[in-house]
Amino acid sequence: MAVAMSLSFGLLSSSVLLPEAHALSFTRPSRSASASPLRMVRTVISCKVSESDKGTRKIRGIMKPRDVTPEMAALVGAQQISRTQALKLIWAYIKANNLQDPEDKRTIICDEKLKKIFEERDRVGMLEVARLISPHFLKTEV
Asked: Can you give the residue ranges of the DM2 domain (predicted)?
């Protein structure tokens, strides 16, 4: 029986077979309701819990609040803000004032507040927004 099962699952090659194993059937096991399918089970041998303190982690990169120019502060309503939060507020302003081009939603039609941030341009592509707000985040010395 064990040889037949190993043959049906391809565990033994024909060169290793016993002579009486050639007479066995090479059919797949039935998938009826009574027969349960075989499953591979992975056993956890050891596990390591990381001991990082999330509260003491230093905020860096685009999540770190930075000082912004007066033009940006007038639009977002804060003197210090992170890049991600600024982008969210700019997009909320664009959608609230219906400043997307109706024919091409990827294009923003700038009003006076946005022109101050977007280099006095009348139209800006949505992929340019992150690049254009970059100069408005002031570098602070450490």
From this structure: 61-139
